[in-house]
Specification:
alpha+beta, 6-stranded antiparallel β-sheet, 177 residues, 3 helices
């Protein structure tokens, strides 16, 4: 026998060089996190709707309109004659202030220039502006999911805060593209 150690090393090397076997992936089919999240969101949505309904009931002199996008609004100043409304790419100038449902002012009246659907703006306000004509003033009530939602605005608006926005559309500069 030549070298028993050499034979042993060769055998160990050959056995250990076997190609790796694929493992079967583990799949977890619980979905409990998604179910819990959906339930939590349903409860939050129901609570916010009750709060909003309470506000509307306590202001019977206001003619609230339910939008197709899940928010409510009423006109402070309605323009009947003009039919011009902002569309994609129009540059609009508007004033707005933001408060929570308790009426606490979060942002005092600000003037903003915005290019319709080309810049960041929370979905509720973006859709609300599309309903307005120049010189109109509208008060919107937005549930949190179409306001700043779970993240807030990372400044003054916290997590899941429904908002009241008073908006005046000053001007529409039509996009001529």
């Amino acid at each position: 026998m030549k070298n028993p150690y050499l034979i042993l090393i060769l055998l160990v090397t050959l056995v250990s060089c076997k190609s790796p076997e694929a493992r079967m992936p583990e799949s977890v089919k619980s979905g409990s996190f998604l179910k819990e999240s959906a339930e939590r969101n349903k409860k939050l949505n129901a609570l916010e709707h009750k709060m909003i309904e309470s506000i509307m009931e306590s202001n019977p002199d206001k003619d609230y309109i339910a939008s197709e996008n899940g928010f409510w609004y009423f006109y402070t100043n309605k323009v009947e004659s003009d039919s011009l409304k902002p569309v994609f790419g129009d540059v609009i100038d508007f004033d707005f202030n933001v408060s929570n449902l308790e009426g606490f002012e979060i942002y005092a009246s600000e003037n903003k220039t915005y290019v319709m659907d080309k810049e960041e703006l929370f979905i509720g306000l973006r859709e609300g502006l599309k309903l307005m004509k120049p010189s109109e003033s509208v008060t919107f009530i937005f549930p949190s999911q179409i306001a700043y939602g779970y993240y807030g605005d990372e400044n003054k608006i916290g997590t899941n805060v429904p908002l009241i926005c008073e908006v005046t559309l000053n001007n529409i500069n039509k996009n001529n593209d």
